[in-house]
From TrEMBL:
Substrate binds at T39. Belongs to the dethiobiotin synthetase family. Homodimer. Its cofactor is Mg(2+). This is ATP-dependent dethiobiotin synthetase BioD. It is an enzyme of class 6 (ligase). It catalyses: (7R,8S)-7,8-diammoniononanoate + CO2 + ATP = (4R,5S)-dethiobiotin + ADP + phosphate + 3 H(+). ATP binds at G10, V11, G12, K13, T14, I15, D51, E108, G109, A110, G111, P199, A200, G201. Pathway: Cofactor biosynthesis; biotin biosynthesis; biotin from 7,8-diaminononanoate: step 1/2. SUPFAM superfamilies: P-loop containing nucleoside triphosphate hydrolases (SSF52540). GO terms for molecular function: dethiobiotin synthase activity.
Length: 239
């Protein structure tokens, strides 16, 4: 079981989750993706889990616990809509139920590790702790990402969580100096290895191309072929 968190919104967390799911499913594993809270999406609109299925394939099991129309934190969105909030116990139970029937369960948070689910301050960190799950940090490539990654990793450590690694969720076609430097510095900030770099715009790829990019961009830890030193060398040479 893996808990997928980001250093913020729009960092490529859903695409990264789908990429891990796609590789695992292609390897014959039974995969489930749990999205505890989907915000900013109306009931009749496709959400993150629809993107996961579109990219990773229909064999991936998906489950969403709450959906709120306003693009806010789950707590704030629930308050505005009058819909029920979530608590870590409900999320952990849903994850455990999925895990009994699957080889890999991925839990995709909303935003960062401490984004609140309810007025008591429950967060994805509480879910990860209750499940004893490893945490994957999805980070941005460029300037400002080191501080956000270090803060996430520090909070995880203080909460008794283990960060398995960091993945860059949207690598730019023309990386600047900060992005290139961060290939070396992000693992230091996270206190964990760089387990992948996925190209920006990957969500628009066909399923076949998406799987190929996932294999190239994710570590052998996930069943991929990504080599951080080789990637850094090629990226710097290209620059």
């Amino acid at each position: 079981m893996l808990v997928m968190t980001g250093t913020g919104t729009g960092v490529g967390k859903t695409i990264t989750t789908a990429a891990i799911a796609a590789l695992a499913a292609a390897g014959g594993q039974r995969v489930a993706v749990l999205k505890p809270a989907q915000t900013g999406v109306r009931p009749d609109e496709p959400g993150d889990l629809q993107d996961v299925v579109r990219l990773a394939g229909p064999d991936v099991t998906t489950r969403e616990l709450r959906r709120y129309p306003d693009p806010l934190s789950p707590e704030a969105a629930a308050r505005r809509s009058g819909l029920p909030t979530l608590d870590p116990g409900e999320i952990a139970q849903a994850a455990s139920d999925l895990d009994t029937a699957h080889d890999l369960t991925l839990i995709e948070g909303a935003g960062g590790l401490l984004v609140r689910f309810d007025s008591a301050g429950a967060s994805l960190a509480d879910v990860a702790w209750s499940l004893g799950s490893l945490v994957i940090i999805v980070a941005e490539a460029g300037l400002g990402t080191l501080n956000a990654t270090a803060l996430t990793a520090e909070v995880a450590g203080k909460r008794g969580l283990t960060v398995a690694g960091v993945i860059i969720g949207a690598w730019p076609a023309e990386p600047d100096l900060a992005a290139l430097s961060n290939l070396e510095d992000l693992p230091v900030a996270a206190g964990a290895p760089l387990l992948g770099v996925l190209p920006a715009g990957l969500g628009q790829a066909s399923r076949e191309d998406f799987l190929a990019a996932a294999r190239a961009g994710l570590s052998p830890w996930f069943g991929g072929e990504f080599d951080p030193e080789l990637f850094a060398g090629c990226a710097s040479a290209g620059k």
